[in-house]
């Protein structure tokens, strides 16, 4: 156990160091990693096209290969379809269409891809100047832990707030007193023990007949709603705090000279002092939708045994619609909190301005999201996989230095999986800060383009690399 705990703590520490190094290296390798991935995908699809053509040509003249899929009908063995030329021709056409789409997207979206990569590099540079933001997820984790503790204690108090109910537990199935209520103090003086030998008066549950006891389920539901609301508020507070810190970096005329001394602490103070109502309102909207999803899941569980297909179809549609609504609200809330941190306006105004700003830059949003998601997912896999390999060598005693100290383990898969999952969560915590940084810089970049023109009166705040990509130059005083 001590060896497993030592390896776990060491693995999490290594995951933290590797995550920090990966975020720093993104400043120099973001573009390289993305283009290697893109050209790798193009190469793999190209090889697939060639292989499909080779199979198509190889099956020429073989009896039965010229049959169509319609001729052979539905077959459970998929290998039957691989003996048909039509199958490989369809695969080749599909791969050719995908290849052409990817190449055309690279040709027509190359500038937007370059902007996305430049924003990723700028995000790494911003985190380098405000390193304290990487450790803010610890604050969010502590707040969520407090919320969970509050919910659990309240739920236990509600569940045990009734009067204890005792019932007769008899070994004999023919006992007529079985499952009837009883009083443990007077049970031994009754005839139940004589008529049902071995019967006992045991505790069953907490209950009651008052109006309060009838609505305990409603109170539990209200407690769950408050819990969801508080968790969403803690997340919203973290997003607004990080957005304010990174926005102070972007809007600084001289970086890093004009960045505030304590940007994260100042942003946290502003969020608590001025934006608590807006954050609570945004969290409330999201909590209502999530509570409806919980109720739908509960109804689906209760109605699972019914044979009414229409009810199951209706519940499935409702669950799908509210799932999409929750994803949309999370996206809107996230960007609304960024606008709140930048301008300090109320939630509804900030959400409206963020939504229309993103719609005016919808192609850039799509490209940035895909590039960011790929790089961050790659980073999480690299961190978790690298730490997992080290832990595997540690537990299997393949490292000579550690083999002398670490005793052999009979079941090392459990601590190994724990190390891998823990490393992935550590990497996710660091990369979530990086994702928030990129989203904040992107909204600031879009606002910068719309509100400024590069003149002396309205200079751009974007970095020099974004200047070069956009082909925009600062206007001279004479032209301004």
Give an overview of the whole structure:
There is one protein chain. With 480 residues, this protein is mostly helical. The protein has two domains: 406 residues, no CATH class; 45 residues, no CATH class. The protein is 71% helix and 3% strand. The chain is built from 16 helices and two strands. The protein has a two-stranded antiparallel sheet with strand order 1-2. The C terminus is likely disordered.
Helix content: over 70%
Sequence of strands across the biggest β-sheet? 1-2
* Largest β-sheet summary: 2 strands, antiparallel
Please state the average pLDDT score.
80
SSE order in H/E notation? HHHHHEHEHHHHHHHHHH
Strand segment count: 2
**How many domains is the backbone divided into?**
2
Structural classification: mainly alpha
As a whole number of angstroms, the C-alpha radius of gyration is 31 Å
Unreliable stretches (pLDDT < 50, length at least 5) are 398-404, 473-480
| General form | extended
Give the DSSP E fraction (strand runs of 2 or more residues): under 5%
Quote the distance from N terminus to C terminus: 71 Å
- Number of DSSP helices? 16
What are the key terms here?
disordered C terminus; transmembrane; Choline_transptr-like; cell membrane; antiport; 16 helices; 2 strands; transmembrane helix; mainly alpha; two-stranded antiparallel sheet
Structure summary:
Keywords: Antiport, Cell membrane, Glycoprotein, Membrane, Transmembrane, Transmembrane helix, Transport. The protein is mainly α.
């Amino acid at each position: 156990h001590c060896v497993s705990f030592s390896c776990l703590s060491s693995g999490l520490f290594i995951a933290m160091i590797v995550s920090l190094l990966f975020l720093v290296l993104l400043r120099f390798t973001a573009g390289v990693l993305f283009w290697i991935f893109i050209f790798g995908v193009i190469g793999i699809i190209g090889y697939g096209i060639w292989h499909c053509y080779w199979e198509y040509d190889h099956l020429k003249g073989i009896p039965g290969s010229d049959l169509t899929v319609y001729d052979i009908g539905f077959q459970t063995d998929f290998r039957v379809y691989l003996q048909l030329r039509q199958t490989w021709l369809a695969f080749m056409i599909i791969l050719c269409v995908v290849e052409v789409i990817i190449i055309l997207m690279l040709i027509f979206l190359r500038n937007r891809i370059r902007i996305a990569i430049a924003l990723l590099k700028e995000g790494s540079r911003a985190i380098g100047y405000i390193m304290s933001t990487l450790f803010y997820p610890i604050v969010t984790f502590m707040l969520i832990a407090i919320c969970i503790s509050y919910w659990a204690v309240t739920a236990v108090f509600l569940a045990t707030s009734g009067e204890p109910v005792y019932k007769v537990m008899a070994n004999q199935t023919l006992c007529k007193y079985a499952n009837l209520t009883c009083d443990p103090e007077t049970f031994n003086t009754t005839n139940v023990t004589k008529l049902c030998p071995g019967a006992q008066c045991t505790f069953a549950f907490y209950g009651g007949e008052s109006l309060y006891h009838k609505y305990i389920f409603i109170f539990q539901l209200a407690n769950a709603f408050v819990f969801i609301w508080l968790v969403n508020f803690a997340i919203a507070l973290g997003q607004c705090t990080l957005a304010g810190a990174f926005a102070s970096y972007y809007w600084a005329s001289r970086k890093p000279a004009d960045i505030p001394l304590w940007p994260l602490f100042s942003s946290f103070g502003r969020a608590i002092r001025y934006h608590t109502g807006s954050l609570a309102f945004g969290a409330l909207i999201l909590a209502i939708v999530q509570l409806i999803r919980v109720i739908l899941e509960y109804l689906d569980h209760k109605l699972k045994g019914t044979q009414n297909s229409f009810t199951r179809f209706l519940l499935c549609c409702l669950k799908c619609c509210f799932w999409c609504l929750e994803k949309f609200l999370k996206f809107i809330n996230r960007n609304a909190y960024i606008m709140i941190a930048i301008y300090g306006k109320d939630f509804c105004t900030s959400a409206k301005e963020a939504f229309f700003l993103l719609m005016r830059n919808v192609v850039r949003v799509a490209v940035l999201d895909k590039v960011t998601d790929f790089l961050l997912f790659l980073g999480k896999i690299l961190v978790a996989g690298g730490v997992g390999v080290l832990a595997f060598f540690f537990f299997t005693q393949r490292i000579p230095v550690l083999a002398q100290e670490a005793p052999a383990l009979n079941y090392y898969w459990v601590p190994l999986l724990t190390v891998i999952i823990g490393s992935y969560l550590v990497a996710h915590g660091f990369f979530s800060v990086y994702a928030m940084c990129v989203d904040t810089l992107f909204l600031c970049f879009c606002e910068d383009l719309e509100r400024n023109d590069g003149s002396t009166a309205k200079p751009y705040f974007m970095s020099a690399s974004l200047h070069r990509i956009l082909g925009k130059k600062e206007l001279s005083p004479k032209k301004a």
